[in-house]
What we know:
By secondary structure, the protein is mainly α. It has a domain of 49 residues. Helix content is 51%, strand content 6%. It is built from 2 helices and 2 strands; from the N terminus they run E-E-H-H. Strands 1-2 form a two-stranded antiparallel ribbon. The radius of gyration is 17 Å and the shape is flat.
Amino acid sequence: MGWWQTINDGSGQIDWDVKRDGSNLINAIPGRDNPKMMYNGDGPADIMSAALDDIESEYIKAWKRKPTYQELLDCFHFCIKGKTQVQNQKKQNKK
Length: 95
């Protein structure tokens, strides 16, 4: 499993300009690299890939087709907005 710093442009792509320890390695290391930067990794990517497969299966069962790219984005935004709202509400309740 590896981690890498991403380009902060919404593409999720590896920031190839980041060099580690003077080498060409792109690996970011939790506990060493700045946690405030944006990262992606094999673990989260594998989890997301499995979730996308499950979502695709739901569309095929219901609609006899795969979801469009926009439908996948809409699903993600719907879920992440709901999760963010719940987290914010929990923070408010602690005050």
